[in-house]
Amino acid sequence: RLSALLFPLLYHVVRYRRRTVAENLSAAFPELDATARHELERRFYRHICDLMAEIFARRYMRAAEIEQRVRLENQQVLQPFIERKQSFLLLSIHQGNWEWLLARVGNFLPCPMDGIYKPLHDAAMDRFILDSRAQSINPVPFQNAGREMLRSRRQFRAFAMLADQAPFKRDSRYWHSFLNRTASFYLGPQKLAEAVQCPVFFVSMKKDARGSYTVRFELLAEPPHARDEFTILDSYIAACEAAIRAQPETWLWSNRKWKHQPPADEAASVDAPKTTAN
């Protein structure tokens, strides 16, 4: 009921990032006509309203209810690493309900899970999210992630990261074609996996119905990881795009993923991406 009330307010009155969403959908799906893209846009905003209600509810949900609403489809692929007590890195995206995903996986694992996060601009919302996440995982600011992973590299832990956000302009970035445009990605997943030499999984989330999701794990890479390569990032980006195209209305199209453009000397080399540091 709360979601139903939110939709007309968010879509028609506030018009939250309507232009950004429309531009992103137009670029990602040029094969769709205007009517089909408009319908996809409306489905996205209805999902966002569901998501807002679900994130609010997360604070007050017990682990058993999250387990009932979020099904793990193939968690057995983690079992060999769990049995060896080998730490691993879980990479996901802002699709479905990532807050419930983190909670479900964090409650399932037999080891601590550090959730690497980028602080929100709104301090009150940031505190609300962190307090919710702290019920199941250990939130770690992304600027401390490398130090924290190296410090605990001899312990059995899981590390989780939603790595599809746009990096800050001052950060080193990896440029790659993504949904028909050149986008920048954090180098963190590649560098952290190389530093700790841990297996890397992609974690996707599919919305089955309102308030009901399925999570699936996909092994992207196993150590040893070669230094100064980008194979993990390449595999992650390909997995992201496949997951988004499989259920586009549940990805965060309001994300300004393409707000930065590569430097002129790199703009023509999307097929052979490079990094740049400002």
The residue fraction in helices comes out at: 40-55%
Strand content: 15-25%
Largest sheet: 7 strands, mixed
What would you call the structural class?
Answer: alpha/beta
- Secondary-structure element sequence? HHHHEHEHEHEHEEEHEEHE
Per DSSP E runs of 2 or more residues, the count of β-strands stands at 10
Taking all Cα atoms into account, the compactness measure Rg is: 19 Å
Look at the structure and give the mean pLDDT.
91
Instruction: List the uncertain runs.
Output: 271-278
The count of helical stretches stands at 10
> In order across it, which strands form the biggest sheet?
1-9-8-2-5-3-4
Terminus-to-terminus distance:
47 Å
Commentary on this structure:
The longest helix is centred in the N-terminal third of the chain and has 25 residues, at 34-58. Residues 271-278 have low confidence and may be disordered. The radius of gyration is 19 Å and the shape is globular. α2 (18-28) crosses α3 and α8 runs parallel beside α9 (188-196). The strands form 2 sheets. The chain has a 7-stranded mixed sheet, sandwiched between helices. It has a 3-stranded antiparallel sheet with strand order 7-6-10, covered by helices on one side. β8 and β9 (212-221) form a beta hairpin. The relative contact order is 0.16. The protein is built from 10 helices and 10 strands. It is 41% helix and 20% strand. By secondary structure, it is an alpha/beta fold. The termini are far apart.
Task: Itemize the secondary structure elements and their pairings.
Blueprint: H1 2-14, H2 18-28, H3 34-58, H4 63-69, E1 70-72, H5 79-83, E2 88-92, H6 98-108, E3 113-117, H7 123-133, E4 138-141, H8 145-151, E5 158-162, E6 173-178, E7 181-186, H9 188-196, E8 200-209, E9 212-221, H10 231-246, E10 275-276
Parallel strand pairs: 1-9, 2-5, 2-8, 3-4, 3-5
Antiparallel strand pairs: 6-7, 6-10, 8-9
Helix pairs in contact: 1-3, 2-3, 8-9
